[in-house]
Amino acid sequence: MRLDLTGAAARVAARLPEYLRDLDSLASIDSGTYDKVGVDQVASMLSDRYDRLGARVSRHRHDVLGDTIVAELGASGPVTLLLGHTDTVYPAGTAAMRPMRREGDLLFGPGTADMKAGDLAIVYALEDLVALDANLGRVIVIHNSDEEIGSPSSRGLIRQMAETADAVLVLEPGRENGNIVAARKGIARVDITVRGVAAHAGVNHNRGRSAILELAYLVTRLEALNGIMPDVTLNVGVIQGGERVNVVPDHASAEMEIRALEPESLQHAVELVRETVAWRTIAQTNAEADVRIEHWPMHRTAATNQLVVLAQGLGADLGLSITAVATGGASDGNTAAQAGKPVLDGLGPVGGNAHSPDEYIDVTSVAPRVALLEGLVEAIASGSVTRH
Ligand SMILES: [Zn+2]
Questions:
Q1: How far, in Å, from the CA of 146 to the mean position of ligand 1?
Q2: 1, 9, 32, 374: least buried by Cβ within 10 Å?
Q3: Is 219 exposed, middle or buried (0-12, 13-18, 19+ CB in 10 A)?
């Protein structure tokens, strides 16, 4: 049975007042990442909905950060993993200071677009599919608590669940123009430490070996790597060094990041950075690089393109023209992509100005986006995506 998407959109549209009340309840809870009480409260509200739906719900408790909830529906068939996060970037008191308000079709409020509207979109889509007794295959939903700080407590779980999935759908907000996201850059963080030789700047200047000067040469060579690969950017964002103006400095340090769309490019750029850091301009200085891959690239594979085409076809049925774009920012989609599974992101209601006082969602996008999500889940369950 192929789902009637316009029917689904009409049912969600009829429930829109209820959806907006739910969104108001969620947005009125301060749930900054370190606000465990608030984040847990959001998790409980979502978890209650999955309980009522007959899902198998588990709660992964954390002592300091918020709890992550996992809900599962269906027993067999292709597996869809749905991702949403319950934390926001806002400090306690923001919800009371800026309660949700509507201006025309736009609804403003902290954490609406990023991403309580997307969390609720998952709930509403699954409620409708279950009421229709639609084929879900197996659906796993994760609402994690710490995405805004890089998901330290939940990234292992996301990776593990992604390994079992056939497709991963992330409900971060749709772009302001309705675009969805099919690729996100990966990020490597590099901490560079340079050692030189200290000396009195007036008496023994010739005995000194300036760590700052060596770092300056190094920074120009590192920044010159920009442009070598089209999908890679490098940025030295912080430098520090020296103690006093009359001392040749014996230490300096820099923090940089490398972003790349393709895993191979990221690895190649890391190698180039290591080689560059190993190369000395001033004798008797020394430099070391500490490299960490913070986010794996969510790169656009053939399997991703299959999902994009599927979303575009379903979108056309709903009168949505969908373009899938790449972005430089990371999300939990990057972690899921590391499992080698196709990931589509930005599937939540359309919104903008995330992480700012003007954060909003476009109310008119809720019904079609929830219907699109229903269509994707049903199509994946029916075998529309090649299994890996
Ligand atoms: Zn987000």
A1: 10
A2: 1
A3: middle
The CATH number given to whatever domain includes residue 200 is: 3.30.70.360
Q: How many angstroms does the Cα of residue 148 sit away from the middle of ligand 1?
A: 7
Ligand 1 centroid, distance to 331 Cα (angstroms)? 7
Structural domain including 223 reads: 186-295
pLDDT at 192 > cutoff 90: yes
Please give the backbone phi and psi of residue 166, each rounded to the nearest 5 degrees, phi first: -95, -30
Measured in Å, residue 300 CA sits from the centre of ligand 1 at 20
* Per-chain mean pLDDT for the chain: 96
Q: 26 and 116: one domain? A: yes
DSSP 91: P
State how far Cα 55 lies from the chain centre. Answer: 25
Span from the CA of 254 to the centroid of ligand 1 (angstroms): 28
Tell me: do 87 and 179 sit in the same domain.
yes
Residue 285 has pLDDT above 70, yes or no: yes
CA of 114 to the centre of ligand 1 (A): 4
pLDDT value at residue 2: 78
Residues 146, 84, single domain; the answer is yes
pLDDT at 332: 96
Supply the pLDDT for residue 46.
Answer: 98
Specify whether the CB–CB gap between 344 and 324 falls below 8 A: yes
CA of 171 to the centre of ligand 1 (A): 8
pLDDT digits (tens, 9 = 90+) for 289-302: 999 999 999 999 99
DSSP element (H, E) containing 47: helix 36-52
Q: What's the CA-to-centroid distance between 116 and ligand 1, angstroms? A: 9
Residue 388 lies in a domain: no
Distance 227 CA to ligand 1 centre (A): 29
Ion ligand 1: residues, Cβ under 5 Å: 114-115, 172
- Ligand 1 centre from 182 Cα, in Å? 15
Ligand 1 centroid to residue 173 C-alpha, Å: 8
Report how far ligand 1's centroid is from the alpha carbon of 4 (Å). Answer: 30
What is the per-residue pLDDT across 115-148, written as a single tens digit (0 to 9) for each?
A: 999 999 999 999 999 999 999 999 999 999 999 9
Assign 24 to helix, strand or coil.
Answer: helix
The answer to whether position 387 is within a domain reads no
Domain boundary among 295, 321, 342: 295
Alpha carbon of 334 to ligand 1 centroid (Å): 12
At 388 the pLDDT is: 65
3-state helix, strand, coil in the chain (%, to 5): 40, 25, 35
- Report the predicted TM-score, pTM, of the whole model to 2 decimal places: 0.91
| For residues 311-333, average pLDDT | 95
CA 325 centroid distance within chain: 14
Tokens 């709930």 correspond to: 123
